Amino acid sequence: MVQKLIEVSLHNRYIVLLLAAGLFVWGIFSIQKNPIDAIPDLSENQVIVFTEWSGRGPQIMEDQVTYPLVSNLQGIPKVKNIRGTSMFGMSFVYIIFEDNVDVYWARTRVLERLNYAQRLLPQDVTPTLGPDGTGVGHVFWYTLDAKQMDLGEQRALQDWYVKFALQTVPGVAEVASFGGFEKQYQVIIDPVKLQYYNLSMMDVMKQVKANNNDVGGRKFEMSDMAYIIRGLGYIKNKADVENIAVSNINGIPIRIKDIGSVQMGSDLRLGIFDENGEGEAVGGIVVMRYGENADNVINAVKIKMKEVEKGLPEGVTFKTAYDRSTLIEAAIETIKEKLFEEIIIVCIIVMLFLFNWRSALSIIIQIPVTIAVSFILLNAFGLSSNIMSLTGIALAIGVIVDNGIIMSENAYRNLSLWQNDPANKKTEA
User: Fold this and answer.
1) Contact between residue 134 and residue 35 where contact means Cβ atoms under 8 Å apart
2) Which residue in 321, 347, 324 sits closest to 401, CA to CA?
3) Is the pLDDT of residue 190 over 70?
């Protein structure tokens, strides 16, 4: 079979060269399309369900949130395992699917089952799906360099401006904010005054919630003009909160400031983010989607950050905390250098042993064609270019060269034997 294939190739050398050129061009396009990353993605094919219920302990979260979700998510097609974790105020459920399952098909199946499981959870508790990224999807970290702004203002700038802008970049699944604190109005109630006015904490909470709202009315027509009636009631400052009426006594309103005080504070903080021991910082983590090209996503994020930086307050800039593209580019440069070195060594070795430039050229041509074909196979099997795959290709170049040298030497040996065979000489005579 092999001998027949060799004979056909020798008799149709131009077709073989045309096929090799076609594979090389196809491989070049495959190299451009193949996702590039620094490290291989060995994470499991999973969908994360996150549920938040403020102020509840781990045992309550386990009994009333995690267990109902885990028990009702059982039976989803092509699921290998379901894991649940409960902690203070938060619940995480990890649904592990088979490796060959499309991640977006899996997310759809989980979302369908969550709609059914919602009725088993406590009121106002809504589970949400995690981002469609993997454990190695954190490709870029940044912080805000804003010394003149406090941590609350920096976090507000990150959450309401920078985050939304960067999430529009193609290939970005999520931009997770970290550091600083989220501002909030804090009402400090005096329990003695609550008892004096015969009020409860729930009465105060209901009135504060009801008075922080915009409501719509009907249309009012007057003098051939139509006016839309609206009630604007959103809280804008501390004074608005202090003047909210909770109850009344003989027509005299009892306001928040009569039973306590209002201050600006931060949400509950479970930790801080310190940058190189220089103090707290605020920033974000860019999470890449499944199967995206990490290098392209990072470059697109950097371009978008330059546009966003123009709209930041004066004196506020971005600082890069982690950039995986440096490792990716270093891996690519390494494979280029090794490829160039091996081609030079092959030329020298072949010329020294065979003293024939045509033989050296035939061996050298095998290297780029074989590498191009390897990227075609990487795309066919859904594998990315990373340190592991590129190192494997670099190591395989030695095997390719060895095979070429062995075949060339074998061809020369057989030609020599054929030329020195007496029967062949008589035939020629």
Assistant:
1) no
2) 347
3) yes
